[in-house]
Fold this protein.
Amino acid sequence: MANLKDEQRLICKFLFHILRCLEEHITTERVAELKTMIMVLNSKLAEMYGELCLSYNTHMLYHMPEHVRRFGPSMAFSCYAFESANHVISTYIRGYNFGLKEVSNR
């Protein structure tokens, strides 16, 4: 039997393969294949670390292939560009109250 580090390494490679597949346009058949791979990944994670380790993100990964099929590669509908700009807005807020008013007055 493989040790824990080998299994973790295998899971990382498996996840990397899934994520790389999500960066390209995929067919309906590929969606089903990727969903199966993600279910195997999640069940292996649950087996290794327990059900409680499965977070919202591991669940949402299951839905990603369908989103990629519908909207194109994941970077086409990512919110990262907008979320990374949040720090700029936060520099305009000095207190905990009336944040919107502070931003609009600057």
